[in-house]
Amino acid sequence: MKIGEIRELILFGGGSLLIEIAKESTKNGLKTHVFAVKRHLDEVIDEKNRSTMREMLDQGKIPYFQVKDINTSTELRALVSGNTLGIGLGEVYTFNKETIALFKGKLFDFMVINLPQYRGGAHFTWQILRGDKTGCWNIQVINEEMVPAVFDSGEILKRREYKIPDEASIPQDYFDLSEKEGLILFIEFIKEIKDGKDFELKGLDEGNSLYLPRLNTLKHGYVDWSWELKEIERFICAFDDPYAGASTFINGKKVFIKNCRHEMDGEAFHPFISGIVYKKNADTLFVAIKDGTLAIKRVLDESGRSLLSEIRVGQRFFTPAKYIEEAMLFNADYDSEGLVKC
């Protein structure tokens, strides 16, 4: 498959990588436009400066459109020509037959998963829970069957696999690495298009498919202190930055836990002791788990204030069963505005 000459790039979706790709494509002389829903445009993606995607697009003088239904967008139809390349990055849009046809075979999705594994959502959280250290980007043909965070069936045009280092333990580590790798993939892709490369389309091996649903940190992130030590550690890490943290209670107050590590060189504890803070120092709580110790360095209240200095030895982290049960039964569904109330 040869893509031919490209003069314009249209990006769909959100996130910091989309901003970097928009800057890179502009630098390469491509007229670049962005289409996004309100929740993506209003999302803070530069934590240091607390800048939203909308603000960063304005700062970079990158034209964008806030569009809820991409298939009825007159702005899109006015922009697409025979030399337009379309790329989705975490978009919520489902493209219909007519919209796909506008691009004449040049509409692709950048997927940060090892397809056909991790279809669904919360890819990095699920990877951390499973201890999966394989990173992968795919450039996938967008077809009518594809539904964001539900099903991806298009053929693969280009793939970039990479190793996630052992020290990467929280979603932010995975995001940071994937952004670097995704930008490399985009730069390679544009160069290959310019060089007239004939891409080979490859179908997905459905025998290796894995679907795991979307998550919501505030609904799903409750710690079950009856789990084994490494299971608890992975769970807390999986909801760490950039998310709010794993939830539990101490002294009757809901808290969020981040930055933990397991210690198994000490004695194991009876399950009845699990969750008790048995030792602390200036920056760490040592919590008993049935098969070892969990060292915790960040405990926050619901406003984000640190509670580490206020927690006393002998107090217990505990999650009532109703919260665990509700987490297991909750289905996170999102639309263009955000989480759908169930």
Summarize, please.
The chain folds into 2 domains: 8-212, 3-Layer(aba) Sandwich (Rossmann fold), CATH 3.40.50; 217-339, Methionyl-tRNA Fmet Formyltransferase, Chain A, domain 2. The chain contains 10 helices and 19 strands. It has helices at residues 16-27, 38-41, 53-59, 74-79, 97-102, 123-130, 171-194, 217-220, 229-238, 321-329, and strands at 8-13, 31-36, 44-46, 51-52, 64-66, 84-89, 107-111, 119-120, 134-141, 156-163, 211-212, 246-250, 253-263, 277-280, 285-289, 292-300, 317-318, 334-335, 338-339.
Please give the order of strands in the largest beta sheet.
Answer: 5-2-1-6-7-9-10
Which CATH architecture of the largest domain? 3-Layer(aba) Sandwich
- In round numbers, the mean pLDDT is 93
What's the alpha carbon Rg, rounded to whole Å?
Answer: 22 Å
Largest beta-sheet details: 7 strands, mixed
Helix content: 25-40%
What is the chains' assembly state?
single chain
**Count of individual domains:** 2
The 3D shape can be described as elongated
